[in-house]
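Data deposition worksheet. Section B asks for the primary sequence of the deposited chain exactly as it was used as input, without tags or linkers unless they were present during the calculation. Section C holds the resulting structure in token form. Section D is free text for depositor observations; keep each observation to a single sentence. Incomplete worksheets are returned to the depositor.
Section A, Depositor: J.P.
Section B:
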Amino acid sequence: MAKKKEKNLVIVESPAKARTLAALLGSDYRIQASVGHVRDLPKSRLGVDIDTGFQPSYVVPREKQAVVRELKQAAATAATVFLATDPDREGEAIAWHIVEATGLGKVPHRRVVFHEITKEAVQNAFRHPRDINQKLVDAQQARRILDRLVGYQISPLLWKKVRRGLSAGRVQSVALRMVVEREREIERFRPQEYWTIDATLAKETAPDETFVARFVGAAGKRKKLEIGSREQADALLHTLRSARYSVGAVNHKEQRRRPQPPFITSTLQQEASRRLGFSARHTMALAQQLYEGLPLPGQGQVGLITYMRTDSTHVAESALHEARAYVAERFGPEALPPTARVYRKKAKGAQEAHEAIRPTSLRRDPESLRSVLKRDQHRLYSLIWRRMLASQMKDAVYDVTSAEIEAAPQEGEPLLLRASETTLRFPGYRQVYQEYSDEADDDGKRSLPELTKGDVLRLLDLLPERHFTEPPPRYTEATLVKAMEENGIGRPSTYAPILSTIQQRGYVEREGRYLKPKELGFVVNDLLTSYFSDIIEVGFTAEMEEELDEIAGGQREWQPVVRDFFEPLQSALAKAAEAPPLQEETGETCPECGRPLVARWGRFGRFLACSGFPECRYTRPLEKEEEEAQEAPNEFCNLCGSPMVIRRGRYGRFLACSNYPQCKGTRRLLAKVGVACPDCGGDIVAKRTRRGRTFYGCSNYPTCRFTSWSRPLPEKCPQCAGPLTAQAGGKARCLKCSWKGPLPSRLVEVPA
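Section C:
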């Protein structure tokens, strides 16, 4: 007798998402998690048959075999299997792999897609199931195969030419190239001197109402006069001191600023980096938790935001109505524009019509969730909530007053200075959310007295200032994501992994917020651009992304796209294979065989090796031992009390007893930041997590467990005298009372 069909089976990727769906779907559904992908290309070989049209050979990894068995067993007794993986190409591919790996071809199965885990969205998705979209699967397959061809064929070349353990990636190598080329642009930059001259002025009739105007150039000429030297500045100062000043014109205008659209993946990562100091990976991990659902008191597991991998600014009609109603209730009808704002995504290569990242309900304001969410979850949710709410509010309206000041010297043509004032008339969306440009304007605004044309002015002071042009800034994670998006490189799901990979591989490091290529990064980039310049070129990679989009849209077949990429790759690989290993002549000779010594790369950095390898295997560290043994002030051995010295080992620098080999005391070298621990008075030191992220903790760990992701500052909070930490955007925050303000250079000293 055949087995009785039981409940419907719903398969999702994660257990957290499964728990949230279980609360929404009820007892007619059984929900299981695949815990990500269930099939992939094999790790031990290429896994792509080039001779048969690039057919992939997928395998079920050993750690996923038990999951696949459980899914098979559950599907065998299910009435229908619903594949509810994420609503993007990767989610579509995961659904397809689940069908193939579990043999669901003969079992009724349907695909359901929702962009938020709410009762309305989920029920609507189950009312309108569909088949798996094979075009989306093919696009994701093509991406995976292209990445495998690059990774598994160029990476071994790096092992031979540089050292083992290195990796190359189709998009990751382009990102590295962008960082390296920006660094070289900075190195080539030569600063140019220029001067500005500000004049402090007052009306003859109101000498106490001073204002500042900046020198522009000759009156009546549009082009601004560039002041390129001290001599030129001194000559202008002499002329301006003897001039008569009056108001030539006063202009008044209204300026409107529109709110920014709700977040997409790239803008969320950028803003979380700028405002919160989060890495792209940390941002996406938090967003995943908010999307999949968290337990709320009395409500169970609740999804708090819409899907976080998206390049669309579209917002559902129901969400727009809710936003407008909420704005009217909280800020009054005067804060609402006449109609709902509709945003159009303009980034290059925007693909599936997802929704923007927004709260699933604006009624869940951040304050109501403060006690429920962890600190970083709450900070990110608050950012998403405020951005969405602000996007449906009225423009901010400013009154801009500009004055043209004429300086009539005793000799020569009249000169022009300008002064302006910007005043906020109507805050609009700024009641909820301010962009960084708004904050910068607020910091730098100047006030003007009441001026009319013809007013006679008195010169009170001239303030010349010397400046130098600055090189382009290094990329931060935020600006690199922005540049990648603008150039059509990568997609929402790839930004965070790319940034993490180039740092974890040791190609790029973070200095504060900025990304700086390491020596190994320069070496790898130069080798790749020498032989694969066309393949890891920005334009070529963007075109490849467009072709993948065309596969997803059904305009192309995936095999020809892969073939067109593979043929130039093979040609470049053949040329690169003939190149000698990367090594540097040193001028030294091997003490064992007399051949030249060369500098090579190894697992733990560069080292000296005999050029006669493998016949002669002589090696030694590049730095001599006596050069490495540097004194470590105020550090003493815990075993014998002797002074400690800094030495370099295979895992980097460490502290060693100067009495070695009689005493073999060692300990980790910790970078002190010059701040005392607020809990025990010990030294605060910089440390790194396993993934390379910097944090700050007490040197007395584990006795004292004080830690902070933000760098502690020596100054005290002006409000409660608690410990301060540095924040993004030139701000500081108190760990005790959560006070926020400017960095300590502008703080008032706390009385003792």
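Section D:
Residues 438-444, 624-628, 745-752 have pLDDT under 50 and may be disordered.
The CA atoms of residues 43 and 61 lie 9 Å apart.
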